[in-house]
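Bump. Still looking for Tryptophan--tRNA ligase structure tokens.
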Amino acid sequence: MKERILTGDRITGKLHLGHYVGSLQNRVSLQNEYETYLILADVQALTTHFEHPESIKQNLRQVALDYLAAGIDPDQATIFVQSLIPEIAELTTYFSMFVTVNSLRHNPTIKAEAKERGFSDMYYGFLGYPVSQTADITFCKATLVPVGEDQLPHIEQTRKIVRRFNQLYKPVLLEPKALVGEVPRLVGLDGSQKMSKSLGNAIYLDSTREEVQEKIQKATTDPARIHRTDPGHPEICPIYAYHQAFRKEGSAEIQESCRKGQIGCRECKGKIAQSINDLLEPMRDRRSKYQHDRKKIDEILMAGTEKVRQVAKETMQEVRDAMSMDYF
Ligand code: ATP
Ligand code: MG
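Sorry for the wait, here they are.
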């Protein structure tokens, strides 16, 4: 039997290059080797978007379309909607009985995200989202979770929760491992923070050629470089980070000519915009096949969710049995 992968995205907007290199690329390349489950995390989106649930509805199919465009094969991978699997909420509740508030408050990603969002007091659901993620991963007995670097503390917490559950009750859950993508944390166009939907510093997978060129030309570069001949500092330039991520072979040469002031930012940006467009081009082709076929996307999501329901039922039976909650 194949091992399982579970991973996914909060339904807070369309996907960008950070998602691709952090996680999506691995999902595509492993979808034949592993039984792959992709969760459209609408409940987790509510942790920060509870005032605008309608935005989740607008983005749901968009994220599914991004998966298909990126090369996810719906005949191989199973795409499903989190809120339609009530067992996930049930399992979250059981876990929350033995996870302490302090262990969540000390989670470095929770701390960083709470600060970023200006939370002085944390919402209960937000603080507990690593517990809900543990339920996402464990209900389908996934052993591998392709994620970006920011998710590592959560996977560590998941492993602890699994060990605790198995020790308290019966060893029915599996301890997963994280698989971080080729670029663990892609920097945003502002050059200071990670590329993120919420920070407005992203290049989206559905960008046109012109949008890519325009965003790249406007991106921050080394502020010390005023004239073309000024020596540059590629290590602080997001454009150089993109060369390393998307134009590997040419990046050593770029680094050298930037340091020596032999290449201008405009030319350097032109080269990387071209490489990013080369990466996105086949995605544009695949996207155009599904884009106007809402019915097809709905069929994929409904079939995926139906399949996952069965898996969830089986695991919850084992969980309830392990917890002596199999009353009748
Ligand atoms: P939001 O701002 O709504 O939290 P996000 O852009 O941070 O959105 P998530 O849905 O939180 O995206 O992340 C989905 C997956 O993509 C996670 O595995 C995360 O680690 C990965 N990821 C997101 N942004 C990046 C990035 N800039 N570099 C590498 N991986 C990333
Ligand atoms: Mg995030």
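The beta strands are 4-10, 35-41, 78-81, 144-147, 177-180.

Edit: fixed formatting.
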